[in-house]
Description:
53% of the residues lie in helices and 16% in strands. The protein is built from 14 helices and 11 strands. The two termini are 19 Å apart.
Amino acid sequence: MSLKLLRTIDGVYKPREDELWGLAEVARLNKLYLAFLRSADGGVFWRERVVEEARFRRYMRDVVDVVRALRGLRYALYKFRRPIDHVSVDLDVLVHVDDVSRAVAKLRSRGFRVDVVEPYTVTLRRGGFIVDLYTYPAFAWIVYMDGWRLVRDYSEDFEVDGVVARCLTRDAEVVVAAAHAVYKEHIVLLLDCLTVKKWLSRKVLRLADEFMVRGSLDLVLAVCRGVEEGVVEAPYKIPLTRVVKLYLEKMREDPMFRGTSLNIVRYLLKRERSLYIVLSRLTRKTY
């Protein structure tokens, strides 16, 4: 089904009627629902497409509002640029640590309220839209990439609905997408595969080495090859043993990852339902 979905989106496969609802569910789980609705022949999905297109327009309006608020600050949208339109409920932004308080103030002036403040992250919300301000890409207070180097060395101006925004370069986005999928989520989506497949380059490989996340990129590439061969379905949940192995490898080579790794103990101790958090991440199908 994963391969059929990718071929449907590429326009080289016409699904049978009895396949449509199954493909729609696969598309939802892989953050490709909008792309599927645009590719599938109208019919039974016309209402869903109207709703999803409206969600996409609303999301882009919120993104533009955030970009205007952050003008003049040192930031970059990340996990944002993809080779295909998709709908998200949140926006991830890398911000220089000295600009975080100003970014929060500017967003609060536009109706956002602070939801959560944690090491490396401030989460703000306005209605159903969430903005995560990161100083470093991290999970459970463990840093897995150098956020400021990404903003300083691998960002560029990019037009978002007629407004100039600072975003990561395409090469950096491939590396970030793979690292996020593996180190943080432990799940590879078809959206990740499309990003890697369409934007892979020698520079991407060099960046993965530079940021010490080559193991995550190699794993995502292997999963995507399996999808293209029809032997792997996505979302693909990475086996826990493989995740642990990659963590150990990264600990050996990345001093920032190694130095913050013990933060996970503090993270879990501060969570009232820490066991539930761990179990839910081990059993979920997507994110």
